[in-house]
UniProtKB/TrEMBL annotation:
Residues 1-26 form the signal peptide. It comes from Vitis vinifera (Grape). This is Wall-associated receptor kinase galacturonan-binding domain-containing protein. It comes from the Eukaryota. It is a single-pass membrane protein. Keywords: Membrane, Signal, Transmembrane, Transmembrane helix. It is found in: Membrane. InterPro entries: WAK_GUB. Residues 32-95 form the Wall-associated receptor kinase galacturonan-binding domain. One of its GO terms (cellular component) is membrane.
């Protein structure tokens, strides 16, 4: 009789575990074949392309494929994806308005690090640095070689260029080092363009062509947020992102090391399992029940391990008993 109860108990616990485990597996993103678009092969988890099977990738990281170009819709802008690096969680995007040519084209969209909200799937980490390029129109020519003479695509027709400021220049430098205060009085500031920090422009190649190459590197954004979601939020913990090493830290100091425990996502579920285990365990072994209760009270969530041990112990016990 006791044996039957035990078996029912074990069966129920096993069912519970299997059930929660399968829920956990189903909720996780399934391994999918990488997608490709134009030159971009291996678009893989957490990214997905519009139209991929619904279980693939993460919907927060959906990209589109238009005319063989991979597109990232970011706030009000639509950017070309140039490169995805899964090791350092970086995605490099370029504004479609920027083009190589004999005049300097400008971005279609205005995007700065301030555009990014804290919880957005993408971040523009200050730690990664960026280059700022300021365009300006001047009434007199400037001989300082920091000022790169440019031909603005707007003014090639002579239509939009104001005749009082016919000289166009660009000043480019690190986010911090660019001193707009240096501006000669005869100039007015136009657009600012941000780009990835590239090779520093040597005085020898401060040309419009080099500047275009620099701007066409685009900007580098981080998708490290996905690690926060997958490693920390799942456990109800908060997360710190370190963009200098591109890794995350969950804030729970006694986070459990047992991977199987990660599957019980909500804390109430863990609690429920522990309570059920205590109830079932108390049916046959009050000592183990007390042990579990003690552990639960201590806040240690290694109950799965105990359960496994206990299960092994019980099944051995049962088989020896059942053999006549
Ligand atoms: C894409 O992935 C496959 C297999 O994972 C690998 O052989 C191939 O080199 C990768 N291609 C690129 C461009 O990363
Ligand atoms: C995309 O690329 C494929 C092969 O690389 C080509 O057959 C197709 O015409 C291209 N489509 C567009 C819209 O450029
Ligand atoms: C970034 O923010 C500015 C100011 O709020 C806004 O004008 C601009 O459209 C935003 N950029 C994008 C790409 O949405
Ligand atoms: C990420 O790695 C790629 C390839 O090694 C590199 O080009 C890129 O600059 C790196 N980005 C960051 C932010 O470390
Ligand atoms: C080109 O003209 C647009 C407005 O038509 C202006 O916003 C932009 O700053 C101009 N670009 C340059 C490089 O002067
Ligand atoms: C150049 O001028 C032509 C007509 O004179 C106009 O249709 C075109 O839009 C102009 N291009 C630019 C870039 O201003
Ligand atoms: C500057 O010129 C050197 C060689 O002259 C080249 O290797 C480097 O890429 C250039 N830098 C930029 C930003 O174009």
């Amino acid at each position: 009789m006791l044996n039957k109860e035990k078996l029912v108990g074990v069966g129920l616990i096993t069912l519970l575990h299997l059930c929660f485990f399968s829920v956990c597996v189903a909720g996780q993103n399934q391994p999918c074949r990488p997608s490709s678009c134009g030159d971009m092969l291996n678009i893989s988890d957490p990214f997905r392309l519009k139209g991929d099977p619904s279980g693939c990738g993460d919907s927060r990281y959906e990209l589109a494929c238009e005319n063989n170009r991979t597109i990232l819709n970011l706030y009000r802008g639509k950017y070309y994806v140039e490169e995805i690096n899964y090791q350092n969680y970086s995605i490099r995007v370029v504004d479609p308005g920027l083009k190589k040519g004999n005049c300097l084209s400008t971005p279609l969209y205005h995007l700065t690090p301030e555009n990014f909200s804290y919880d957005h799937p993408y971040a523009w980490p200050y730690d990664w640095g960026f280059r700022t390029t300021v365009l300006m129109s001047c009434s007199r020519p400037i001989s300082d070689d920091k000022f790169i003479p440019i031909t603005s695509c707007n003014s090639t027709n002579g239509t939009t260029s104001s005749s009082s400021q016919p000289y166009h220049y660009a000043l480019s430098g690190d986010g911090e080092s660019l001193q707009v205060g240096d501006l000669p009085g005869s100039c007015t500031i136009g657009k600012s363009i941000f780009s990835k920090l590239g090779a520093a422009s040597e005085p020898g190649n401060r040309s419009m062509s080099s500047l275009q190459d620099q701007l066409l590197l685009g900007i580098e954004l981080s998708f490290l947020q996905i690690q926060c979601i997958r490693e920390c939020r799942v456990k109800g913990q908060s997360c710190y992102m370190d963009y200098t090493v591109n890794s995350v830290k969950c804030d729970d100091p006694n986070s459990c090391k047992d991977l199987s425990d990660d599957c019980y996502k909500p804390i109430w579920l863990k609690g429920l399992i522990i309570i059920l285990q205590i109830i079932f365990a108390s049916i046959y072994t009050p000592i183990i029940a007390a042990g579990i209760l003690g552990r639960a009270l201590l806040g240690v969530v290694l109950s799965y391990g105990i359960y496994k041990l206990r299960q092994r112990h019980i099944s051995k016990h049962d088989t020896t008993k059942e053999i006549p």
